[in-house]
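in:
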């Protein structure tokens, strides 16, 4: 005879069922979560389109501007997801910033850079890639710019999904080139400018890597391998902060103040030297006070480098906002200008509402999709600590100044990622050299097998190959995509 179920059994069954429900609820949340970010991004794009419609009205010709505003917002979101990771990745990888802190700082400083110091005049034919005289009518020009905007946004979106940090500037360049070829043939392209851009694919990351490696060598020699590390840090950290302040001041004077005043390279370097010296004077007593009572070990050094690293990441974001947002919204500004005035100048003013779309789009993109690439750049290429990450930030600012002096169009993405690789490869070389020295001085010790040595590589080769491949094919892929999109758009309108 079966016994009647008691209260304890009831409670057990109820607990089990509720447990199942909680599992079901978490599973539903897990399924729904991947749709939240694209949903918010879509709402932002629709709002950008509605804003443009309110400004311009809904007539046939103005619908093109509305569509361009939607795609401009899409492009800005993709820049936030991909490009900004290069500025914040090293600081997050070095544990100087949490992911949330990095996203907030980057969103604020990127937007400030775009809105306060972003160039109000942009070369809409993206750095003189296409001769405007070759394009027959303003309608053809508008569709070419639209194709460039859509293709570059799609390409950056794909690269982010794959996990490859690519240059959004180069994506726009490829898009403009492809649409120009589709609209007016190969003669429309300024191949001399294109060859300069192609040269920058190699020069940017190599230069960034070399400068970052040199700074890391300096930090190792002058601070880490000294008997009294704290005394060495008191002497050298203010110097490094001064160099950082000077480099960023020169960079922003050169790139970010075009709206207020045009500054040549010599004046920018003079401004940088003065601000660098001031930063040194302010930092020296602060570092001295902070280092009092610290133990003579590497862990203490990481603490001293943490705040300068956070400041350099914020400055990098400001500089990126000032420099790169205009490149992203350039085609949108060109479409707005051509629709309003019926002509297409080589340079046009960027309306404030276009810059607002760029600035807010970057913040949304970073917040919704940025963490994937921030982790990739910060911790998956090579292991970073505050000293190594600081070398990456310093290198990024100095390389841009050197490139401006040489007159080379460079990509901030290529420089920052090249600097991360430079730090990683320097660590490998340095580790190998010390292993060889210890083998000579202590031959009785066990030798490391060649297979084990290969396994101990400090830079992930798979990421190196993925990123290099993505860089090489960015311009041709964006160009091909843009050409196809242009032909598709032209077929609909004829």
């Amino acid at each position: 005879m079966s016994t009647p179920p008691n209260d304890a059994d009831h409670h057990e069954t109820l607990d089990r069922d509720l447990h199942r429900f909680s599992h079901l609820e978490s599973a539903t949340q897990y399924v729904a979560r991947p749709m939240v970010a694209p949903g918010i991004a879509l709402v932002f794009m629709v709002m950008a389109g509605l804003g443009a419609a309110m400004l311009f009205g809904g007539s046939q010709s103005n619908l093109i501007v509305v569509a361009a505003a939607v795609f401009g917002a899409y492009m800005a979101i993709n820049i936030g997801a991909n490009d900004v990771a290069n500025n914040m990745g090293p600081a997050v990888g070095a544990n100087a910033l949490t992911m949330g802190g990095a996203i907030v700082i980057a969103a604020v400083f990127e937007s400030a850079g775009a809105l306060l110091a972003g160039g109000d005049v942009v070369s809409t034919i993206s750095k003189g890639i296409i001769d405007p005289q070759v394009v027959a009518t303003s309608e053809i020009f508008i569709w070419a710019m639209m194709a460039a905007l859509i293709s570059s946004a799609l390409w950056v979106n794909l690269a982010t999904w794959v996990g490859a940090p690519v240059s959004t500037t180069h994506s726009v360049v490829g898009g403009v080139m492809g649409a120009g070829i589709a609209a007016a043939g190969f003669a429309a392209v300024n191949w001399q400018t294109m060859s300069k851009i192609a040269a920058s694919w190699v020069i940017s990351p190599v230069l960034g890597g070399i400068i970052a490696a040199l700074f890391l060598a300096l930090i190792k020699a002058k601070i880490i391998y000294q008997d009294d590390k704290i005394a060495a840090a008191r002497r050298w950290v203010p110097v490094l902060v001064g160099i950082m302040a000077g480099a960023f001041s020169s960079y922003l004077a050169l790139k970010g103040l075009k709206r207020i005043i045009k500054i040549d390279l010599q004046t920018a370097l003079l401004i940088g030297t003065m601000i660098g010296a001031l930063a040194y004077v302010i930092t020296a007593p602060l570092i001295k006070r902070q280092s009092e009572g610290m133990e003579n070990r590497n862990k203490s050094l990481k603490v001293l480098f943490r705040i300068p690293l956070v400041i350099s990441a914020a400055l990098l974001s400001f500089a990126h906002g000032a420099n790169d947002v205009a490149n992203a919204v350039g085609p949108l500004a060109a479409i707005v200008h051509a629709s309003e005035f019926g002509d297409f100048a080589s340079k046009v003013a960027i309306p404030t509402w276009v810059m607002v779309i760029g600035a807010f789009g970057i913040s949304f993109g970073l917040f919704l999709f940025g963490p994937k690439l921030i982790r990739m750049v910060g911790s998956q290429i090579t292991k970073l600590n505050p000293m190594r990450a600081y070398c990456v930030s310093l290198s990024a600012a100095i390389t841009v100044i050197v490139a401006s002096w040489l007159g080379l169009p460079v990509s901030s993405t290529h420089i920052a990622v090249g600097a991360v690789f430079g730090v990683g490869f320097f660590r490998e070389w340095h580790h190998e050299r010390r292993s060889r020295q210890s083998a000579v001085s202590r031959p009785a010790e066990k030798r490391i097998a060649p297979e084990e040595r290969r396994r101990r590589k400090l830079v992930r080769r798979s990421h190196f190959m993925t990123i290099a491949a993505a860089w090489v094919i960015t311009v041709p892929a964006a160009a091909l995509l843009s050409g196809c999109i242009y032909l598709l758009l032209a077929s609909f309108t004829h």
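note: Residues 28-32 have pLDDT under 50 and may be disordered.
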